Amino acid sequence: MSKPVLVIGAGPVGLTMAAELARYGTPVRIIDRLPARTTQSRALAVWPRTLELLDAAGCADAFRATGLRADAVSLHAGNSTLARIPFGTIASPFNYLLMIAQSETERLLEEHLGTFGTPVERGTELTDFVDRDDSVSCTLRHAGGRIETLEAAWLIGCDGAHSFVRGRLGMAFEGDTLPMGFVIADVHVAGLAVPPDEPAIFWHPDGAVMFFPITQGRYRIIADLGSVPLHRPDLGEMQAIVDRRGPGGIILSNPVWLSDFGVNERKVRNYRRGRVFLAGDAAHIHSPAGGQGMNMGMQDAFNLAWKLALVERQDASPRLLNSYSSERSGVARQILSDSRRMTTIVLLRSHLAQRVRNFTVKQGFRIPVVRRAIANRLSGILIGYPDSPLNMGSARGLRGPGPGQRLVSRCSSKQGNRPPRFVLAARDSAEARAMIARHPTLLMPEPCLPPDENGIWLIRPDGYVAAAAKCGNWTVIDMALNGYGRPSKHQGL
């Protein structure tokens, strides 16, 4: 029997990782030391790029049916609306922001994982592991105290900001704790004069207060504390903040969660050591500005799972796994930079700087191209891997994305529950069929329509371009596939 991949942590990242591996037919076990799923809303935002990947995984419909669709976000100062950023211009089948409590995200992902016959082993804790040449020897403590020694093919730490796996590896979590704090409340809100499905941010000389809809009438409210030390607020304090910083006339009631949090910006240098990987908050944490944290972690999982599945099936060389850290670390650096910039803008303290910010936003966001650029940036559709070691060729002179860029293809989004495969996007021809015959374990059995009939694209299982070339230049595609996998015995084209 094949050794399973062991996933530590059953939050959104671990559940996504386990579900993708199971969908690809890779033996997997997932454990969590807690006895039950979270009941707190925590992360709320699921952006279009994550929805595209969930669609490819086969579970986006359940998310859409459960979450609240937000078609815009608005920025205000008192009763004055500074800007409204619509999401309808985002070039994605999912051109909106889905607001959904993390507790629901975890429920949906666990149900999706269950369709593959893989349960979450709760009340089970990783207490030690030793990375060997061909496996990772893991010591697990089950509820009731039973000790199990498991030989895992790979170990993936999706166990959060205080990751045991990262600590056991001795990896430095480099970065800073920012000198700011926030209070947070999930409450019923009445009297907020913005569309009920629209996140709204109010700027005030004292700081910001932000409203994020969860369900009808219930919102997540976040406010910065300024120089006040971190503390858990009560409903009265949240009402006072909203009265002072908001537009007036808002009544809060029925709190279900009141808390506080500080902001850290940290990441590891390398997401892998030997047969052990890190993903999600175990590898990177940052300001919640932009709502990118959970999305970035889930996208870590989508990136790694197909690579591990191909390697475990011996359809690809283990060197394919070297691309995970370089690709995702580059994305984390960009997101950390973006979130730091957004946090700085929101929390300006100088009254002059605040007035300049408000004026600039009001004038600049009147320009459609500026609104589209911000929406696309937030959506995740611009995330790519321009420096990936997997990239080959160029799309210069062609109408279509280049290597490392996202390409949403009907073929790649409907691979179903099968081993991961690259998609060949090219005109159906003898040459295309010969390429598929040459690499039958790496390529989907049928070519797909290309963005430009004058080109050839090789699309990765996660929907990014691996290689691009002009028609006739099949050597680029062949070299790319030979570089990823173990080519078949077929020779020539």
From TrEMBL:
- The protein's name is Monooxygenase
| Superkingdom in the source lineage | Bacteria
Q: Which UniProt keywords apply?
A: FAD, Flavoprotein, Monooxygenase, Oxidoreductase
| Gene3D superfamilies documented for this protein | 3.30.70.2450, FAD/NAD(P)-binding domain
Domain FAD-binding intervals: 4-337
Q: Does the keyword Oxidoreductase apply?
A: yes
Entry keyword Oxidoreductase: yes
Return the InterPro entries for the record.
FAD-bd, FAD/NAD-bd_sf, RIFMO-like
Q: Name one GO molecular function term.
A: monooxygenase activity
Cofactor(s) required for function per UniProt = FAD
